[in-house]
Amino acid sequence: MSRSPRDVVSQWVDAFNTGDADAVAELYADNAVNHQVNTDPVKGREAIRDMLETEFAGADMFCIVENLFEDSDWAILEWRDPKGLRGCGFFQVRDGLIVFQRGYWDRLTFLKQQGLSAEDALRKGLAG
């Protein structure tokens, strides 16, 4: 039996919080799309893994679940981080894998909290 969207996103949060890009990427379908609305969509499991690897290397990130809902093949995650950044994500899950993800959060607040300028972010590959 396939994992529920809620279960997949719970596993995603656990893997994300370890900073392990490979473990997070394994939760995506081969042709998945990850669209953080403040950047261009990233297409494909390997490209998503590469994006996560760059982001984990360039910033201190941690996801604290505020709410996690499930509706049909969607999981909706409302989150915050220890520094106070808040956001939400929508994950479409089919056959136990994420096929589409869209995230909403404020990039400028994130950069300020990380002590990064826009130039620093570009140099580290954190700005889309």
UniProtKB/TrEMBL annotation:
Record-linked InterPro entries: NTF2-like_dom_sf, SnoaL-like, Steroid_delta5-4_isomerase
Gene3D superfamilies according to UniProt: 3.10.450.50
Coiled-coil zones: none
UniProt xrefs under SUPFAM superfamilies: NTF2-like
Domain SnoaL-like, chain residue ranges per copy: 9-99
Domain of life: Bacteria
Protein name: Nuclear transport factor 2 family protein
Species assigned in the record: Hyphobacterium marinum
